[in-house]
């Protein structure tokens, strides 16, 4: 039998707020364990949550960019489960009335197809603490810094059929949310986490099979492997006459297999109930409209514009829009007068080379766009040749004025035909032997004469 894979994603994204969702503790990543906690973060009874407006704003910006309908009235609910990293005993989420519904995301997997997936809903919730095993003491420890960090959960319809599609969607989601400043979406720091719901069914069937949910997918590579593994496991089960058990499975990165973690809870098991400590979340429609108008140009729109208005290739447009910071650097360089094609070539070649050598990101470029534009202009005007321009670029990349550098190091090219002719005449007269050899066809003599002429001209 031929099988097809059906995948739906639940993606958790940490919002880039300074504070947590319901208290004023810092939401920053990387602090020493348990430094950013208060009584609310620790679940002390009697402490009440107060909603962070900035988190709502970022969630709404994200929802709008994903084409969702933003609900004017939504509400918070308690989702109960027992875990040492959740001392309150419940997570505050939006279950009955989520913030937004019915979006779409367009993306292109590597094979170049255009894909669309439907977003079922997007809602706000708070994160739990983080447990980790301390090898030294043999204990499991808990860091509550993450407890209460704002998240949005983005749930898709079961619209994916391959690991490549899943990864391409996540890359698109990451691009959109980082352009908006909604999240930094770092898989390795856990600010983007994705649960993969997967089932298989005979090709042609319209009924969904029984699915499993996989967690702990820490990289795009792991996601691809996990999809392939789980698809194979389910097909083998079904072909041997067994059933797929609906359960939550954990991806084991080292063993490259998924292992059962717990049987899947029903909504019933979570004992959802409205959160009595928070009022309904009522949004001002004019405010939502303002956020809609303020939406920045996203990578996909920039790519179209770069191709149409500036004549860039799809590859150039895609590379330059990798991050919003790089795209802005490119646009500012062009605004300073650099021809787009030249600016693109310099940024994709020299700027990215410098960044990767120094381990920097595009947001950390110190050479101002006007500096790069000046270097490009010098080459265009024939004042320096390309090699010299790269030398100047490297010298001023961390700071300095390209014009000044060229002046200080006397790098400017002299384009004076009379001076060059006079020097060449002199060299030819001084080296009759080499001239004779050149006339006899000895190419090596040419290099020698060239060297003499260059030395004479300094
Ligand atoms: P829950 O919240 O209990 O995990 P949902 O119905 O909200 O369940 O679905 C969660 C995710 O699982 C969604 O992304 C959905 O598209 C996906 N999904 C649901 N049923 C299937 C299935 N049979 N096969 C693959 N994915 C599924
Ligand atoms: Mg789920
Ligand atoms: Zn707190």
Keywords for this entry:
16 strands; binds magnesium ion; single chain; binds zinc ion; 3 domains; alpha+beta; 3-stranded antiparallel beta sheet; binds adenosine-5'-diphosphate; 458 residues
Provide a descriptive summary of the structure in words.
The structure is a single chain. Strand 13 and strand 14 form a beta hairpin. This protein folds into 3 domains: 3-290, no CATH class; 297-408, no CATH class; 417-456, no CATH class. Helix 12 packs across helix 14. 39% of the residues lie in helices and 20% in strands. 33% of the residues are buried. The strands form 4 sheets. A 9-stranded mixed β-sheet has the order 2-6-7-10-1-11-12-13-14. With 458 residues, it is of the alpha+beta class. The chain has 14 helices and 16 strands. Adenosine-5'-diphosphate (ADP) binds next to strand 1, strand 10 and strand 11.
Please work out how many helical segments DSSP would assign. Answer: 14
* Count of β-strands: 16
Number of domains: 3
Q: If you compute it from the alpha carbons, what radius of gyration comes out, rounded to the nearest whole angstrom?
A: 30 Å
What is the topology, as strand order, of the major beta sheet? 2-6-7-10-1-11-12-13-14
Instruction: Give the helix proportion (percent range).
Output: 25-40%
The general outline is: elongated
The averaged pLDDT comes out at 92
How much of the sequence is in beta strands?
15-25%
Order of helix and strand elements from N to C terminus: EHEEEEEEEEEHEEHEEEEHHHHHHHHHHH
Ends distance: 78 Å
Bound molecules: adenosine-5'-diphosphate, magnesium ion, zinc ion
Structural class: alpha+beta
- The low-confidence parts are none
Main sheet record: 9 strands, mixed
